[in-house]
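Morning. Coffee machine broken again, so started the prediction first thing and wrote up yesterday's gels while waiting. Chain of 179 residues, entered below exactly as on the submission form.
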Amino acid sequence: MSRTVSLGCVNNGAATMIDAVVLDTGFLISLVDRSRPCHAAAKAYYRYFLEHGITMFSPTVVAAEFALKQPVTDLPLRNFRVLPFTLNDAVRCAALNVAQYRGPQGHGQRDAVKDDFKIIAQAEEQNARLLITEDASTLPLYCARLTTDGKVRIVQLRDGFDQAMVNQDGQRQLGLGST
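Came back before lunch.
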């Protein structure tokens, strides 16, 4: 399943994009709700993922959260790979030790913590290098603590669209154009 797309030269090698991203609930809400502050960033990332053939995984856990407020049919589902929560995902989630992150020492509501860890586990199981979210508090914190080996990086919509976030090495294009 691994595929890379060349974006340009970097130190005798090619800057490569990730080939898959896991979408969090906040991303999906921002994508379809024009009144959200992160709508423009979500739309820019979505368009970028489509244009560059990056697989967009939408976990069923995320679909359940989204469906609490609006129908999932409001989403462009044809462009997502729906990702069911499997036994392998469950085992990976348990290995991440979700229990240590639940209150009172941990952060976040019990159910939300459990769902965040399911999403992180699925990202790892799918070898998705990115998890894109609007969440600025809990999910990025968990990923920072858990992914010291760099398996999954968080892209936060509040930072706006940045192509470098999609590159595995953070490399930006120079944008010099043709002369």
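The chain has one domain: 35-165. Going to sketch it on the whiteboard this afternoon.
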